[in-house]
Specification:
Length: 219
């Protein structure tokens, strides 16, 4: 399947001051995508953009969401539902990419949390009834994303969604980052196990002292 040209799209990242958000912003901006970093306040968003090390713009979450074509949600799980509910109007009609992993941590390490809607992405879909919700970027190491010495990222991005056109756009955005591929991985109802797999990757990272990702064979 030939992926669409997404070079002219504006991508906003909610939670752009966190490591995952900043890392995705850095890579996409360096690849030539127009990137907007969102934070709770305009000042924090602008400061994060200025410190990024790649061309990007910053602002508060509502303003960057309204100005973007595609919005990546990279906020902590604890504030996920509240933030999305507050931005329902700004996100209407947008492609929303949820990359939030609902995880808990105890003495035995990370584990997947139960989400009433089934997954973070399905919670986003339930809240954002006027948006085109997809899920992606769950397994990309923030440490690797933020390291300017790393030119390519040897990883695939699993993209889920019921809207295949929206999913293809997200696949194409992922593919703009050198070394990365966007792989369609099923409908949004399958997002739970993709989000939960992050706990396994964290365990792998801890055991082998690496930054593990996912590669899909024979594709």
């Amino acid at each position: 399947m030939e992926l669409p040209d997404v070079a002219g799209l504006t991508v906003a990242i909610l939670g752009g001051t966190g490591e995952q958000g900043r890392g995705l912003a850095f890579r996409l901006a360096r690849a030539g995508q127009r990137v907007l970093l969102g934070s709770r306040t305009q000042e924090r968003g602008q400061q994060a953009a200025a410190e990024l090390g790649a061309p990007a713009e910053g602002g508060d979450n509502a303003s960057v969401a309204a100005a973007a074509d595609v919005v990546i949600v990279a906020v902590p799980w604890a504030g996920h539902a509240e933030l999305l509910a507050s931005l329902k109007t700004e996100l209407a009609g947008k492609i929303v990419v949820d990359c939030v992993n609902p995880l808990g941590f105890d003495k035995q390490g990370p584990y997947a949390l139960e989400v009433p809607e089934g997954s973070a992405a399905q919670q986003a879909e339930a809240i954002l009834t006027g948006s085109r919700v997809t899920a992606a970027f769950h397994h990309v190491s923030a440490s690797l994303l933020l390291d300017p010495a790393i030119e390519t990222l040897d990883t695939d991005v699993l993209v889920l969604g019921d809207d295949r056109e929206a999913a293809a756009i997200v696949q194409a955005i992922a593919a703009r980052i050198p070394g990365m591929r966007g792989i369609w991985a099923g409908r949004l109802r399958n997002a739970h196990q993709v989000e939960a797999l992050t706990a396994n990757l964290i365990a792998i990272n801890k055991r082998y002292k690496v930054h593990a990702g996912v590669r899909v064979t024979d594709v």
